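Problem statement: downstream parser choked on a complex file, so we are re-checking the raw output for the nicotinamide-adenine-dinucleotide run. The parser issue turned out to be on our end (a line-ending mismatch), but while we're here, posting the original submission so the record is complete.
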Amino acid sequence: GMGSEQLPKQQRLENTVCVVTGAARGIGNGIARRLALEGAVTVVLIDMNQDDLDEAASQLEQEVTEMMGDKGTSRPTFYGLACDVTNSEKVKDTMTYIAKALSTNGRIDVLVQAAGVVGKTNVLTHEVEEENFDFVMDVNVKGIFNGCKAVLPYMLEQNYGRIVNIASIAGKEGNAGMLAYSTSKAAVIGLTKTVGKEYALNGITCNAIAPAVIRTQMVADMPEKQVKYMTEKIPMKRCGTVEEIGALVAYVASEEAAFTTGFCFDATGGRSVY
Ligand code: NAD
């Protein structure tokens, strides 16, 4: 849980400018903290609501300052920018603002896309409402496309970039009762593989992470029957933590993870499909 994190032994993101969507809470928030602890100089939090972002930014700043103590050289700066990832114009303007106003030399080194929704679950496919399907696809798929499209010009300019998209094991195996969500996460993996190939010669990697159950608000809001179904599939017989996802993202977002792109890493306590 929050605050139980150890100071990482490495500083793999020293001096980087990192952007994390869905960072007001949950997995995105845990990722933002880890990137900061790994030495990022600027961490931009993107989410829907400015008040939530302001609170998250000051909370992270406090936690990270406490954890780093007198270790390390500089403290990261957190910025919270409200932006609905489904709004392509807004996403583009937000990336431009980050490059022009919050970053030195217009750099955006890392984009982690954790903004996502699960929609209604524990519903069979013949009962899924079209509206729910469109909503989940819009945020989880188009949102990630919008982020890639907006950040890639900056990454191409600097001939370097790390894009990490949060998919789900549901996208690989399919979760019964979660048609829209599973479909959207499979699409994220397909998108990630494509982007990885297209920019393979440009110093830009694009990878995905497929977590199993992490006890965030998203999961707390789901019917207990659905959560039980997902949890029982995990060989380690426990849920993952946001810290465990943050640790994997820190590696994938680092400079040293240079020879892996278009790949989807599982963080699932052993639940996997080839
Ligand atoms: P969460 O609901 O706690 O956090 C998601 C955040 O995304 C929220 O702060 C929300 O406001 C934000 N968001 C939603 N729609 C947005 C939009 N249109 N624009 C900007 N921000 C938006 O969920 P979480 O569990 O932290 O999930 C984070 C990611 O991890 C999601 O993509 C989710 O699908 C994925 N994931 C979660 C689990 C899990 O068990 N929690 C498992 C696998 C994958």
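For whoever reads this later: The mean pLDDT is 96.
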